Every structure is written in structure tokens, then in C-alpha cells.
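Structural prep section.
Before we set up the soaks we want a predicted structure of the protein with 2'-deoxycytidine-5'-monophosphate in place, mainly to decide which crystallisation condition to try first. Input record follows.
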Amino acid sequence: MTTPVSKIVIAIDGHSSTGKSSFAKAIAAKAGYVYVDSGAMYRAVTLYGLQYGLISNDGKINTAALIAALPDIRIEFRNIDGQNVTFLQGVNVEHDIRGIRVSRQVSAVSAIAEVRTHLVHLQQLMGKDKGIVMDGRDIGTVVFPQAELKIFMTADPRVRAERRHRELVAKGGQVSLDETLRHILQRDYIDEHRAVTPLRKAGDALLLDNSHLTPADQMKWFEEIWEKYK
Ligand code: DC
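Run finished without errors. Recording the C-alpha cells verbatim:
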């Protein structure tokens, strides 16, 4: 009889547009684990702020009111047809949290210390029974510093810009490659220089630079590592 191997926590962090969520979803499916997109939680808080007039469209945040509202904000993930879908106050907001209004304001919301403390606590509760893959910016450093497996993803900014630009053009966007690259470099700067828990690689995280890897190469890389844990 084989001994059942206990479940672990897998923390995925890294730069924007490195394919963290696609990779995290794929490895959660491989491991039979729950996938949690922590960025969606910051996006849901931002959407709540916009919906309730706590954030204006020109980016002014009523920080005190947003902090006071945190206990009332109900964020859940439900599995619909095999997809992880974000619900806010019982309503499916998966589409709205990815839109431009939320994308513009979410960096400022995620820089508020009280928002981070609140969401980190919820994320830790989600991971208390392990068997979870969570992706974000501070998962291996703050949310689960004891995670058994940490992966930090990066790629050459130009490669990331090319990938992102292809996606935007496919969606009918009219942005230039240079502008996309500037945006990516700007996001790296904001993530790495934020006063509260800036993005950094945990000392014990494995570095995955996917500049020259296909999704299939990346899975092969993971499968070799996973042999030690499954
Ligand atoms: O991964 P994403 O683009 O959906 O993240 C949305 C925003 O939330 C982005 O500005 C980074 C921030 N974020 C964060 O600060 N900490 C996390 N654990 C996840 C996301």
C-alpha cells in the first residue's frame, strides 16, 4: 500500500504578463488542487469601491470609507463549467473586474496597507487545508512564507510586451508595441517599488524565466519538479 502524500501549498509570484494565471491554473489541474487568483480579489475590492462611489472615475479614493467597508465586501470563487469565476456580493463579476475601469485603479487600491492585510488574511484562510495553488505578487513572501513550493516567474520585458500586444490586437485593440512595452516597464516599477510589500522573489523560490519557453516546455519543467511532491 502506498502512503498518501500530504497536500502542499504552491505559491506563484512574478512580473505582470508572464502568464502566471495560465500556468497556475494548469498546475492546479495537474495536481488536483484548488486555484486561487489573488489579483482577482484586489480587482473585486476595486470594483466594489467604484460601484459604491468610494473611488471616483478619475481615481480619487475615499481611503477611510473603503477601509471601513472591507468587512462588508464578500468575495467568492465559484467553479462554473470548469472555470474559476469571481463573485462579488453574490454577483458574477469575472468580466467587470478585467475591464479598463478596474485595471486603471487596482494598483492604487492594492497599495493600501489595510486592504492588503484584510485580503492576505482571507487568502491564508483559503489555504489553511493546503492543496492550493495561489498566484499573485506576495504569495511566497507574505501570504504563505512557509509554502512548500514557491515559483517566481519572469521573462524579458520585450518578450512580455510582444505577447501582450498580440493579445490586445487580437481583441481589437489599437495600441502600439512600444506603448505596450512602456506600460509593462511601468507596472514592473510600481510592483517593485510599492511601499507595502513590494514584488520580490522569495529567497527559496524557484526562478522560472519563460522568455524562451513554450507553455509545453513550462509544464515539462513543472512535471519534473512535481515528481518530488506527488
Ligand atoms: O495579477 P493582476 O493583474 O490581476 O493583479 C491586479 C493588481 O493587484 C495588480 O496591480 C497587482 C496587484 N496584486 C497585488 O498587489 N498582490 C497580489 N497578491 C495580487 C495582485
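Observations: The radius of gyration is 18 Å.
Flagged for discussion at group meeting.
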